Amino acid sequence: MFGVCDTGQEGAYAEKIAVKASIIAIKPDSISHQEAAALGLTGLTALVSIEDTLQLKAGETILIQGGAGGVAGIAIQLAKHIGARVITTASAGNHDYVRGLGAGEVIDYNAVDFAEVASDCDAVFDTVGGDVGLKAFAVLKSGGRAAFIGSGFTAPESPRCPPWKCEARGG
Questions:
Q1: In angstroms, what CA-CA distances link 82 with 3, 48, 71, 122?
Q2: Is there a contact between 98 and 67 (Cβ–Cβ < 8 Å)?
Q3: Per residue in 118-139, pLDDT tens?
């Protein structure tokens, strides 16, 4: 069995613990206990980002940066399951892999600037950070949403910031 605590505590090293059945899963024999434990962190990060933060809906377009990574790979599958059109970035050697996860369009970040080929995205999920995170705003349609997990403790500031908000932040 594998699950997460919903009691606000970290860890569950105990012989017995009471948790909701809805947050428990049977560990497949094909993966190790270590892999199952890692899946919890990557899976929940993707789930919270796609469903809670971005509130992705069927029919929307999402750009997921760093598609071959652990969190992004799960995010691709989740976004596809929701019914979104999925665009991702990956090196050429990972194109087949991310397509197999459900990406409809793959951009080779070593050959092409994603901001020049992707546009009008309803959402962007950035798992890379740095300049990639800053460029995310360029591909969003007006009113689009972005989630960042590769940018440290604070998300990059949008260059589209309305003047009244930027002035309030000192920008």
A1: 23, 14, 16, 14
A2: yes
A3: 999 999 999 998 888 888 899 9
CB within 8 A of 169, min separation 6: which ones?
Answer: 157, 161
Q: Are 67 and 103 in contact (CB under 8 A)?
A: yes
Tell me the pTM. Answer: 0.81
Q: Tokens in use for 58?
A: 């069927």
Q: Where are the alpha helices (DSSP H) in the chain?
A: 33-47, 70-82, 95-101, 114-117, 130-135, 163-169
Q: How many CB atoms lie within 10 A of CB 163?
A: 8
94/101 Cα distance (integer angstroms)? 11
Q: Are 86 and 103 in contact (CB under 8 A)?
A: yes
Query: Which residue is listed with tokens 């972005």?
Result: 146
Which residue segment(s) compose the domain that 7 sits in? 2-169
Q: Check which CATH number belongs to the domain holding 122 and give it.
A: 3.40.50.720
Spatial separation of the C-alpha atoms in residues 82 and 57, rounded to whole Å: 6
User: Helices 33-47 and 70-82, interaxial angle, to 10°?
Assistant: 60
User: What pLDDT score was predicted for residue 165?
Assistant: 53
How many structural domains are present in the chain? Answer: 1
